[in-house]
Amino acid sequence: MKLSLTLSSLLALASAAAVPEAAVRPQIKAYGGFKVFRIAVKDQVAKVNGIVDRLGLETWKAPKVANALADIVVPPEKVADFRAAAAGLDVTTMHEDLAASIEAESRFSTYAGISGSANETWFNSYHAYADHLQFLRDLQASYPNQSAIVSSGTSLNGRPITGIHFWGRAGKGVKPAIVFHGTVHAREWITTMVTEYIAYHLVTKYGSDPETRGFLDKYDFYVFPVVNPDGFVYTQTNERLWRKNRQTNKGSRCIGRDINRNWDIAWSASGGASTDPCAADYKGAAAFDAPETADLANFLKKTKASQGLKLYIDWHAYSQLFMTPYGYSCTAQAARHTELQALAKGTAAAIRAVHGTPFQYGPICSTIYKTTGSSIDWANDVAGSEYNFAAELRDRGASGFVLPPAQIVPTAEETYAGVRYLLRNMK
């Protein structure tokens, strides 16, 4: 962990990592002719898995259990075979032309700074990694007595895991902390924008809104919009749908670890992550052998020890879920289980009240699927954070990971409403 970095050295490192990418228009992996299909699995789990395996297809949602949904990416040369194999199944099309969807999503606007009208237009499109760093620096510079740029550590390729720390009238580091992680999985771009939206509105409304002032006077906030910077940059320069970090694996041609399966909590248990380095949910060769995960854990532990850790949320997409521990067990219950379910239910209702977007809630294992080595289980059981949640933001499969820019603001608005509910109702 590199908490000893000075502000100037942190910004210099961030700029050094970002400059070559800032001028590069994203060179997206060719997805010409690719389609994304959704299958309502029903009682055909074995058949759908057989199609995926036989044709060697990538899945956004794997067909793990009966009555689930399977979202499957099909290259052009396999479309006819897929249609034939899936005859008789309940199939819908998510992306008729995946390349066109990615191109429309990746039309980044030019960042003009945070002053004037630019502060709101930022949230109208996705952005290059270098601009995200600059946005955080500009936000901090606008409120220099109430915020600081921080790093929770360094990625494999030397990029600082950059966040913004902000606080209220009591000063920094003296109140319980709230920590948000975004873009754990590199392709989940909406989480980058949503966490920045939360930070922006909490910081900028402190002076004018009594409720916001109360939040910051009660808690310190640490918001990290991109905790997987190497993977995120790779989605912007090489392969839009990349998920993991960019770590090599001994004895394998495949790259990357899933840094949300690499935490030292039930890491060795089976069924919640893959041991295959080529799999999207590869857990690594050992717990915490991904530098990003190890540094994030150290930051949480040190924060807990120095000021207390009130709330931790790990932001993901997609599926519209607001979940609680545990992922590693469908029978174990967290110590605050009843309270967590009540808060998750209220958060889902607050989200839905804004734009009518429905969210399901409950423990990870029973709500989505079993996960081992996940951050919120570790934060709950090891770091001792009081409240811990994992969110899956929009949508439920119309667009999936390639969420149109027009949905950034409404997604952020409803998510912010959910956060406000939590901040009002946590004990």
From TrEMBL:
A GO term from the CC aspect: extracellular region
A GO MF term: zinc ion binding
Domain Peptidase M14: 125-426
The UniProt record lists the keyword 4Fe-4S: no
Record's subcellular location: Secreted
Active site residues according to the UniProt entry: E392 (proton donor/acceptor)
GO biological process, one term: proteolysis
Pfam family, one: Peptidase_M14
Coiled-coil regions listed: none
UniProt keywords, alphabetically: Carboxypeptidase, Disulfide bond, Hydrolase, Metal-binding, Metalloprotease, Protease, Secreted, Signal, Virulence, Zinc, Zymogen
Cofactor: Zn(2+)
Signal peptide span: 1-16
Similarity comment: family membership: Belongs to the peptidase M14 family.
PANTHER family: PROTEASE FAMILY M14 CARBOXYPEPTIDASE A,B, SLL0236 PROTEIN
Primary role: Extracellular metalloprotease that contributes to pathogenicity.
Name used for this protein in its record: Peptidase M14 domain-containing protein
Organism of origin: Trichocladium antarcticum
